[in-house]
Each structure stands twice: as structure tokens, then as C-alpha cells.
Amino acid sequence: MKLGLGTAALGRPQYINVRKENCDNSDLNHFRKHSFTVLEDAYQSGIRYFDTAPGYGLAEELLIEWLQTKNDASIKIATKWGYTYTANFDINATVHEIKEHSLFKLNEQWNFSKKLLPYLKVYQIHSATLETGVLENKEVLTKLAYLKKEHHLKIGLTTTGTSQLKVIKKALNVLVDGKQVFDIFQVTYNILDQSLKEISDELLSQNKSIIIKEALANGRLLKNNNFPHYSKMYVTLENLSKKYKVGADAICLKYCEQTIANSIILSGASNSEQLKENLKTNTFSLSNNEIELLNSFKTSTDSYWTERKKLPWN
């Protein structure tokens, strides 16, 4: 399985997630050392794809520092531009990040992100939407096409919200000098939001790469009494977990792998124990009947994203 490591939970102490236990991330030195350890453990476990962003607090900085300990051309780093982290590691912050899809922000963030070269292979618009107009901004698109050619990058975008498919379809038609700009699409996909299936075959037929994010639906796929409407799904995941002797997280990741061909699935592990559990997805395969059963828990994109908006930063 192609498992990558997302660094949102490693670069900033708070993230949108469902947590069962409280954890104290207020000591930044301890937090940095902890995150460094998780990066190294991921590498030692065979992971070579690492996803980061300026909006993830310290994440890019940590990766730059960590890469200085490596000499391995198989490492691939993906980063993004468009979000600025604003919480300043304050657990009481009301605003954690600000989105800006301007040429100014692209240039500003590229000037730091380029320190990830030569390991940097993928450069993405962070959470591209129709509303920001970024897919019609000729200055931005021209700059991305230039970076693609100059640094042999794959240019991509990440999507979020109910308009994921509309954004992807629009992006496929974006051309600069007669050539498609976008090569790679990082999309929210999991047992609850299965909308990616509607376009995945088309993406693969055009030789586009697919990266899956939020495979655990920000923790909602793990048994939680606050979501009684998922009780049947939780029972099913529990039964499959017992059968394959893995956690529900590994079942959810395997579902993504088996239903979206040739994709990289991002682990959002915030510690080495979670990462170890995620990696157990390599030890089994789900049957066709089990896949069909999990397919049956699909929700509407509207209800999925309405619920996600209510999740707290913690």
C-alpha cells in the first residue's frame, strides 16, 4: 500500500479532529522533538511521501530540518500555498488559519517552501475553491506553470467541501500555453464521503495522480458516542477489526486503497503508535462483499460537510 504521512498534526498543536483524550501540546520544544520522532519513525517504516503546508504551523520548518539528516532520493515532499497559520500556538486562538489565493501569497510562501528542494516534488493550491477564483487567476496559473517547468514539479490542488468534484473538473480544463497545469489531486475521501468515485476513473485515464486525505473523516470513523447515527457502521468496523486483528483505522485506510486505484492515502497520525496501527493496513485485504457493505454507509456530501464544519479545533 502507498501510505503517505500528512504533517498537519505534527506542525501545530491543534487540528480539526475528534479526540478521545486530552493532550497537552503547550511545550513547543517537547512538541518539536515529538514531531521529529514521528517523521523518523515513518521513514524507518518505509514511508517516503510526506505532505505539508505553511498553514501547518512548524511543519515545513521541521521537514527542512529533518531532511538535512537524509540522503535518499526516494523521499517525496508535497507542500502547498494559500493558507497562513495565525494561531501562533495559542490553544485559545479563535482563528487558526487564513486563506489567500493571491499571486503575492504564492510568491511569499514559495520563497520559504523552495527550501524543501530537491525533495520537493509536488506543489499544490491549498484548498482550491470556485469562490476564490484561483483557477481563473492568470498570473497565479502562469507562475505555477513556470515553477512546474523550472523545478520539474507536479502541480496540484487540494479540495474540500461540497464542491470538490466541480473544482476538479474545472482544474482539468485549466491550460497555460496549451498544456494542462494540474497533475495531482488531493481529495477528501472515506467511507462517509465517497464522491471521489464519480471522477476517479477519469483522473486515472488522464494519468493524474490521486492523493486521499481525511480517510478517517477527522476521527468520525472511530467509534464515538457523540455520533449515534453511525452505530451500524461502528459495529461493522468493529467486526472487521476483530476478523483481521487490526484497528478500525486500518480498515478505513484499506477501504480507500481498494476502492480508489493507484492512490496514495495520507495517514494523519499525530504519534508513532497511531502510525504503527495505520501501517497494519498492509497485512490484509477486504473481500468484495466487505467493500460493498462499507459502501452502504455513504452519506450525502451536504450532510458530511455540514457535520465537519461543527467539529472543534483541539
Which key phrases capture this entry?
eight-stranded parallel β-barrel; alpha/beta; TIM Barrel; 39% helix; 12 strands; 314 residues
What does this protein structure show overall?
The protein has 314 residues and is an alpha/beta fold. It has one domain: Alpha-Beta Barrel (TIM Barrel). Helices cover 39% and strands 15% of the residues. It has twelve helices and twelve strands. The chain has an eight-stranded parallel beta barrel, surrounded by five helices. The chain has a two-stranded antiparallel sheet with strand order 4-5. It has a two-stranded antiparallel sheet with strand order 8-9. The chain starts with a strand and ends in a 5-residue tail after the last helix. About 3% of the residues have low confidence.
Task: Describe what is shown at a glance.
The protein has 314 residues and is α/β, with parallel strands linked by helices. It is 39% helix and 15% strand.
